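Two records follow; treat each independently.
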Amino acid sequence: MGSKNKLRRFRENETFSNVFQPTRDELVNSNFNLKGNWQHEVFKNKNPLVLELGCGKGEYSVALAKKYPNKNFIGIDIKGARFWRGAKTAIEENIPNVAFLRTQIELIDHAFATDEVDEIWITFPDPQIKYKRTKHRMTNATFLNRYKTILKPEGVVNLKTDSEFMHGYTLGLLHGAGHEVLYANHNVYKQEGSPEEVTSIQTFYESQYLEQNKPITYIRFKIK
């Protein structure tokens, strides 16, 4: 993507009513006024709040919002030029129950209050295979603790990935730490009974993986 194109998208994001871009200082110093107020201030309802972490272009967030109009969705990514597409689509198609937040995932507990979130989706994260990158894996113990803080007691996390490594790493960590695995599948498109919301929505890259016969894995779990 050219730098001019990026700048244009950044400028356009600033005009979108469904895009929120707090500074790091705002979040860390607890000056972010939407923390604890997303339902009331942004969505104007009390519907369940669902996050997609590392949302990329926002395809999954937008598709979930269309499929579940009685839930509120927030796609989160540090790269605003990417989720510009999802934000623009939501405005063009008048999808009121999806918004986008530009921030780093490690600041997630500064952007949302305790027990504010009902559900989290992590879709096709970078598996960070090298050992020295363990701290960046989005399902490591540190990240799970952050998610637990903002999730309601019965809140769930969904991990959908094409990485067998990420799938295996996460399952091992969940079982080892005593978390509750509600569902796990090594190939959701080949096994009957896979959750419909997992197989009915596909990102652009996911479609490419499927064309290459690459298995898509899925885990649904609760953090204890």
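The next record belongs to a different protein.
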Amino acid sequence: MEPIQADDEGMSPDMLEAPDGETLGKMIRDARKDKGLTLEEAARSAAIGRSTLSKIENNQTRPSFDIIRRLMQALDLETPQLFVQSGKSDISGRRDFTRKDQGEHQVTRTYDHELLCTELTSKRMLPYISTIKARDVSEFDTWVRHRGEEFMFVLSGELTLYTEHYRPLPMKAGDSVYYDSGMGHGCVSTSDEDARVLWVSLEG
């Protein structure tokens, strides 16, 4: 990936509309402040310009898919919900397709998310397959939370789903759960191998 020069304020001509720009900006700003980073430090880590990051945080520009991915990695944001494309589309009969193991990867300290069907824009539902790398809930700096609802189906291995309002939920291959994404949550693998799950997030 070619780095963007520090003074580059330009955006790719094939920009994707960011999900709810105001919410996206607030999430990025909060994550940056939680890590104690200045605008300059966070922008440098994501290889974008300081002014570009400022505009994103203040909902003054629409970041590309690639820039959102860089910011997620730089700020250790755990949720791929940021990749949901907001808004409604008047186009009917749309279709997207992802071949096996050909999804877009977004890796964090605790998860390896493989985003599926990423070509479609203006969609509310986000499907992805995740490998749960975390082995202890202490590996999460804070609860994962975002707008909407989520469905999770365990494909292989065993895990425990932690949520802020319920007791830890042990799960194994074939189990599924549906929950409010705004409720703090996080998963850890409990089997010898890392658990793999299918997640479907629906923006609220």
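Discussion point: Residues 106 and 180 are 22 Å apart (CA to CA). How would you locate this feature using only the token line?
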